[in-house]
Structures are given as structure tokens and as C-alpha cells.
Write a structure and sequence with these properties.
Layout: H1 2-18, H2 26-29, E1 36-42, E2 52-58, E3 64-74, E4 89-93, E5 98-104, E6 107-115, E7 118-130, E8 138-149, E9 152-172, E10 176-194, E11 197-209, E12 218-227, E13 230-241, E14 261-267, E15 274-281, E16 285-293, E17 298-308, E18 312-318, E19 325-332, E20 337-344
Parallel strand pairs: 2-9
Antiparallel strand pairs: 1-3, 1-13, 3-4, 4-5, 5-6, 6-7, 7-8, 8-9, 9-10, 10-11, 11-12, 12-13, 14-15, 15-18, 16-17, 16-19, 19-20
Length: 346
């Protein structure tokens, strides 16, 4: 009876721990005056940007370029005037261009943009976020306004959408792994009408959020600049939130009892074809080591009810048949359970 309860508890924890990424809230993830974030920019690489549940995004091979400092300031410190009646928080990148936002507990609207070459003021703002926001949340808006460049004033209009389109595991350079990440997809399509014709900006931006950090830990930008239906310029880049320090969570949870297991490690992690399980026992015990998918489905046993002596043991497991994703190795020594999380990359 007790063992059945423990197995039920294990399955519950496995499925619950995966979640669907964090829920973004005003108090934990909104723009906040006085905050500052440093990003390490990187060369854009073409990788599958898949959507949906339990995804694995592998950006370990990014090559760093420049740094980008994103300051979030109160409107009183704005480098450009003209938005005091509408904005309460601005973001300034490397001390240059500024984006103007109206931030409330219910959401974020962008009311304008200003730089050395001109200024944009939205009479109908761009809706950037609504709180709370989670996986499969979606927000759409139509916007309009004016762009002032020198002596020329252009009418502009367009559409924007924000969607929690995926959650999963994010692999970054230097051994950084973020788990249970929510990805937010922002699509912005702007039309400007001038004497020279119609200009468009089609921008897609991906923000990767985790529970304990206000700013996205990773960002991807893809933008096309279009004149009369022809792409005249493109911009693509990636940016990683600093500090970039190893954050591999091999053991997201553990059911703690007086276990006979003193060591339970799995390597390499992430793995591609096979992995090794190292197990050390402080006394003789019957051991079963099982493999589960990220959603709690039983996939097979590495070891099944073997009586093992009090020493270190190693077991190889060929997982080449499995798709990329997140898995759990579960060790049971009778009534005690210990788990390790695995990530398959190829």
C-alpha cells in the first residue's frame, strides 16, 4: 500500500514539475523603472524554432559578439520628450534609442519610440502584454499613429500579436540550461505611408522567460524592412541575459527518505544516443532503475529488481530510439525513490 502511494506520488511530481512554463505576472515580470539588464548579443543562427509543449531549444553553439545594456527608467529620466502624458516606463538600449511604455497591473502598452533620427507616437497603442500571461495565452491589437522624421510626418498603422506559443528546455552556451521555460512570440507588422510609397516593418521576436527572473533570459529578433513589397533590409540577432553561468539542474526534485542510495548520477547530460547511470549503495538492496518521459510515461527499465551489493555500480542504456526531449531516470530501492532529469539533444 505504501509503495503504491509512493509510485502515485512520483508520477504526480514528475508531471507537475514539468508544468507549462511560468505564469507571467505584473509583480514578477513587468517592466520596472530602476531595473537594468545586460545582454550578450550573438550571431544569428538558423535553428528550428519549434512551438508547442515540452520543446527542446538548442542554442549551445552561439558565437558572442557585442553587449547590450537595457535600462528601464522612469519617464522623468527620458532622453526624449513628448511622451510624458502617456508613458510611465521607458527602456533605453545602450543609452541611445528609447521605447516608451504605459505599464499597469493589467498589462503593458507601447505608446511610442524615439531616437536621434526621429520619433514615433502611437495614438492607438501597441498592446505588448496582459497579466497574467501563460502558455497558450494570446493578445492581438491594431495600432495607429504618426512618425516624425525631420520635417516629414508619416501616417502609420498596423497589427501586433503576443502569444505564449511554447514551453520547454533551453540550452545555451557555457553549459547553461534553463528548464520549464515559457516562450512568448511577439509579431509586429507596421505600415508607413510617405511620398515615396509604402514602407513596412515585419518583426518577429521570441522572448524566453523563467520563473525567478524578471527579464527574458534569451531573445531572438527577426525583422524585414520592406518598400513597395520588396525586402530592402533585414535584421537578425540573438541575445542572452547575463550573467551566463552554468545552471544545469540535474535533479529538479527528490523524494527524501532514509535511502540506501548514496550516489545516483547520469551522464552525459544532455546526451545524444546513450547514457551511463552510476549508482552507489551503502548496503545491499534490490534496485530498479526506470526511464520515464517528461509527461510521466514509462519507457523501460535500465535495471529491473536486481539484488546489488553495497558498492558502486555502472549501467549503460541505449536511448537512440527516443526523440529529443526531457526524460527522468527513477531509482527505487524498495520503498525509497530518487530521480534525475535527462535531456536528449539529437
Amino acid at each position: 500500500m505504501k509503495q503504491s502511494f509512493l509510485l502515485f506520488l512520483l508520477f504526480f511530481l514528475v508531471t507537475a514539475s514539468q508544468g507549462q512554463g511560468p505564469t507571467l505576472e505584473y509583480n514578477t515580470h513587468a517592466l520596472k523603472a530602476g531595473e537594468s539588464a545586460t545582454y550578450q548579443c550573438a550571431e544569428y543562427v538558423t535553428v528550428p524554432i519549434t512551438s508547442g509543449a515540452n520543446q527542446l531549444w538548442d542554442f549551445r553553439n552561439l558565437k558572442f559578439t557585442t553587449k547590450e545594456i537595457n535600462d528601464q527608467l522612469p519617464i522623468a529620466q527620458a532622453p526624449y520628450s513628448g511622451f510624458e502624458d502617456a508613458a510611465n516606463v521607458i527602456t533605453v538600449v545602450n543609452g541611445n534609442a528609447a521605447n516608451y511604455f504605459h505599464v499597469t497591473p493589467s498589462g503593458i502598452e507601447q505608446v511610442g519610440y524615439a531616437g536621434k533620427n526621429g520619433k514615433v507616437r502611437f495614438s492607438e497603442p501597441v498592446k505588448r502584454m496582459v497579466y497574467p500571461f501563460s502558455y497558450k495565452s494570446r493578445l492581438t491589437s491594431q495600432f495607429s499613429g504618426e512618425a516624425l522624421f525631420g520635417t516629414e510626418t508619416l501616417k502609420l498603422f498596423g497589427s501586433a500579436s503576443v502569444e505564449g506559443d511554447a514551453w520547454g528546455t533551453l540550452l545555451l552556451p557555457n553549459g547553461v540550461v534553463y528548464e520549464n521555460v515559457l516562450r512568448v512570440k511577439f509579431v509586429y507588422h507596421n505600415h508607413e505611408i510617405s511620398q515615396c510609397g509604402t514602407h513596412e516593418i515585419l518583426q518577429t521576436k521570441y522572448y524566453y522567460y523563467v520563473k525567478d527572473l524578471r527579464d527574458p533570459v534569451f531573445t531572438i529578433l527577426e525583422a524585414d524592412f520592406i518598400h513597395e513589397g520588396v525586402v530592402t533590409n533585414s535584421q537578425k540577432y540573438c541575445a542572452i541575459l547575463e550573467p551566463v553561468t552554468p545552471k544545469v539542474t540535474e535533479q529538479p526534485f527528490q523524494i527524501t527518505f532514509e535511502s540506501k542510495v548514496t550516489e545516483f548520477t547520469v551522464y552525459p547530460n544532455p546526451f545524444s544516443e546513450s547514457f551511463v547511470v552510476d549508482l552507489t549503495l551503502k548496503e545491499q538492496s534490490n534496485i530498479t532503475i526506470s526511464l520515464f518521459s517528461g509527461d510521466g510515461k514509462f519507457l523501460g527499465n535500465v535495471v529491473e529488481n536486481q539484488l546489488l551489493d553495497a558498492k558502486k555500480h555502472s549501467f549503460n542504456y541505449n536511448a537512440g530510439r527516443l526523440p529529443v526531449g526531457v526524460y527522468f531516470a527513477v531509482c527505487k530501492d524498495g520503498k525509497h525513490i530518487v530521480t534525475k532529469q535527462l535531456v536528449k539533444t539529437h
